[in-house]
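Sanity check. The docking grid for NAP depends on where the pocket ends up, so I'm generating a full predicted complex first rather than guessing from homology. Inputs follow.
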Amino acid sequence: MIEQQPVKSHLLWLEDEVRNLTYYVAVSLDGYIAGPHGEFDSFLVEGDHMEPIWERYRGTAPTQIAEAAGLSVADGPFDTVLMGWNTYAVGLPDHHLPSPYQHLRQIVFTRSHEGPAGSEAVHFTSADPVATVRALKKEDGKDIWLCGGGTLAAVLADEIDRLALKINPVLFGNGIPLFGAREYAPAMLERAGTHAFDSGVLLAEYRRS
Ligand SMILES: NC(=O)c1ccc[n+]([C@@H]2O[C@H](COP(=O)([O-])OP(=O)(O)OC[C@H]3O[C@@H](n4cnc5c(N)ncnc54)[C@H](OP(=O)(O)O)[C@@H]3O)[C@@H](O)[C@H]2O)c1
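Predicted complex below; grid placement will be based on this.
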């Protein structure tokens, strides 16, 4: 039987002494983080899961969007966010978010793009993501948020210490997978917490054993 803990009260693993890389992401029941063309409008943005998950993962919305919604981005578990170019580019150009997470240190991995105007606070790098994460883990700081997407997550899979899935009650059928292509190499994770909401969203948290 899986116990239901109040989401806000079991913050223990967010207070580890080591600096963790946490892949915190919304995912469909069939394992997609977006549709084939980047669609994400089927993820639930209303319901009883919203407030407690935000409290736990405060700061994981773009600064401007959080401010417009009256949400504080202060005192969250992360001080750094990692994105692949495709994830970063979601904020361009329609949403006009060249520096989406201004309240975090933003690192975007790309081998072929340069930052647009307004992205001066964003660090674009073609460095090896694994070496970058290992160097970041040696620094002092809060946990590191791996925002996505699946391509970058596949490269960083063995560096992920915590996996936090907002599993949405929807089947996509096709799309961008939680992890891009990898070798078959089963790695057991340990359950750190689970919370089922009436909305149908399940917050499932795992840690590397
Ligand atoms: N559901 C969620 O919570 C969530 C969260 C995040 C993202 N997403 C979705 O995920 C989608 C994007 O995912 P994705 O898998 O297509 O792409 P991605 O992982 O965001 O970005 C891939 C790009 O990152 C760069 N990159 C990857 N590996 C690299 C390396 N080793 N060194 C340097 N650069 C590297 C390359 O950019 P260049 O081509 O520029 O070299 C590559 O094309 C978007 O639709 C987004 O909305 C969903």
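Relevant for the grid: The CA atoms of residues 150 and 179 lie 4 Å apart.
Also worth noting: The mean pLDDT is 93.
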